[in-house]
Amino acid sequence: MKTSKRQNFILLPSSGSEITLKSNPQVADFLTTLDDAIDFHSGGSSAMSFSVRNMPQAPQEEIAIEVIDSIKSKGAKLVSLDTNEMANFRFSYPGLRIIPEKFYSRTDAMQERLDQKITAKTASKTLDVFITDQAATPLLGITVIAFTDFKLRIGSKTRTNAKGYAKLRLNADKIERLYIYPDHSYWGVLQKNIKTKQSLEIKLVPLDLGTNDSLRHFFDTRNFQQIENPVKVGVIDTGAGPHNNLLVAGGKNMINGEDPDDYSDKESHGTHVAGIIGASGVMPGVALGADLHIYRVFAVGKNASNFDIMKAIAQAIADKCDLINMSLGEKDLDEGLISSIKDAYNAGIVCFAANGNDGRQPVSFPAAYSLSIAVGAMGRKGTYPASSTQADAEAAPYGTSPDNYVAAFSNIGPETDLIAPGVAIISTYPGDYYAAMDGTSMACPAATGLAARLLSTRADLLALPRNQVRSDEILKFLSQNIQAMGFGANFEGKGMFHLP
């Protein structure tokens, strides 16, 4: 007797993401039957059985399908199937692509990469780290990561308590690297080669919202006027807001089982990304006045399903966005998301995607897909404290200015189209705070926002019919406003957007 091995798959028509009765009535009827089986907005699922076809010599068999979610009645479906029944299903219901559900991570850089790779060893030492502000007031909830062997990622991680203390349990007399990560309002700290003591006191430097980070070094956003013509920018992320300096035009929560009207941010990443594009206030985004449409695809503490990202792109098309920002990535190509990005391009929408933060590894997907605009990250010395965690991002190659560099975490390759500031970027954080973050996640919205500002000067392009020609013409126009930064095409593609 075979053991059931159920797995989630996306069902798509053989061509495109939606089918018509005229092109293939059997496939259209089958997808509609799946769609009619359940109220998808309730967050539930529906178990259905379908007969195995074309096997007259065998007893009547049935294939059990659990229908989980849908994009349009004759479009993509998320289902659960027994992998033992895959061949039966393909032969019984041809004309469908069967694509595994995959999951995408955010492309912010340093802390996330370190958090995922810590290996604990038997502790023989303890270290109390006492963290305060400049007035010696203890700070709660500050993340502390210590490595006794950085190459092997052997170390300890904890957070400060209400008294500002974090107790690290270590296995050696020396800490190779100590990272301090505040969630917001302060610069992080990087210290190296510390002798293990009983205690260590560190005072955090507050963010100065009156000075320039690397984004504002290149683009004086405080003196930017509101964009000339409305441009709709879809942000596919963890949600956005609330924040008093972040005005959101609309959006939707795409996660099955959650309130579709709640696209607020529970994790900060999407708020930071959206703020880089269109925040107002003391640290304005590069496209002040853009119509931000927020599509939440990350459940709290989880990666984003490719199906939810596909739903978000479909919603952005329905909302008539002009640009889409995707600060997320995964290593392998994804046939489902390729179909959705094609749909966006054919609807006159250009998608920007982050290169990924794997340290000079190949460009991640969907940035690597040719109809996406792939964005790498650069930094600039002197735009953050020398002792901050951002110093860890400094690496060759350096550009035409020796202070400019390609961020050490940034993925590279011939698929790279653009580069943008992505180290020590200060932007909005839920609860009316500000935070400095790093990653191609930050570079991507810098490029998307600058594209929105440039595009807003061309009412004629915005008025074009929503088809592939519109996307082509937008890219032709944007290509005229890029300058090389001296890193070489493998690192920066064509270069960085500049404003006339």
Strand content: 25-35%
CATH topology of the largest domain: Rossmann fold
Q: Pairing-aware structural class of the strands and helices?
A: alpha/beta
Number of domains: 3
Helix content: 10-25%
CATH architecture of the largest domain: 3-Layer(aba) Sandwich
Query: What's the N-to-C terminus distance?
Result: 70 Å
Mean pLDDT: 92
- CATH superfamily of the largest domain, by name, is Peptidase S8/S53 domain
Give a count of the beta strands, DSSP E runs of length 2 or more: 27
Task: Catalogue the unreliable spans.
Answer: none
Question: What's this entry about, in short?
Answer:
This protein is of the alpha/beta class and 500 residues long. The chain has eleven helices and 27 strands.
Written description of the protein model:
By secondary structure, the chain is an alpha/beta fold. It has eleven helices and 27 strands. Strand 11 and strand 12 (189-195) form a beta hairpin. The longest helix has 16 residues, at 440-455.
Features:
single chain; 500 residues; alpha/beta; Alpha-Beta Plaits; Immunoglobulin-like; Rossmann fold; 3 domains; 5-stranded antiparallel beta sheet; globular
How are the SSEs placed, and which strands pair?
Elements: E1 6-13, H1 25-36, E2 46-51, E3 62-70, E4 77-82, H2 86-92, E5 96-100, E6 103-106, H3 110-115, E7 125-132, E8 143-149, E9 154-159, E10 165-170, E11 174-181, E12 189-195, E13 199-203, H4 214-218, E14 232-237, E15 250-253, H5 269-278, E16 291-296, E17 304-305, H6 306-318, E18 323-326, E19 328-329, H7 335-346, E20 350-354, E21 372-380, E22 404-406, E23 418-421, E24 425-429, E25 433-437, H8 440-455, H9 459-462, H10 468-479, E26 482-483, H11 489-492, E27 496-497
Parallel strand pairs: 7-13, 14-16, 14-18, 15-16, 18-20, 20-21, 21-23
Antiparallel strand pairs: 1-4, 1-5, 2-3, 3-4, 6-17, 6-19, 7-10, 8-9, 8-11, 11-12, 21-22, 24-25, 26-27
Helix pairs in contact: 5-8, 6-7
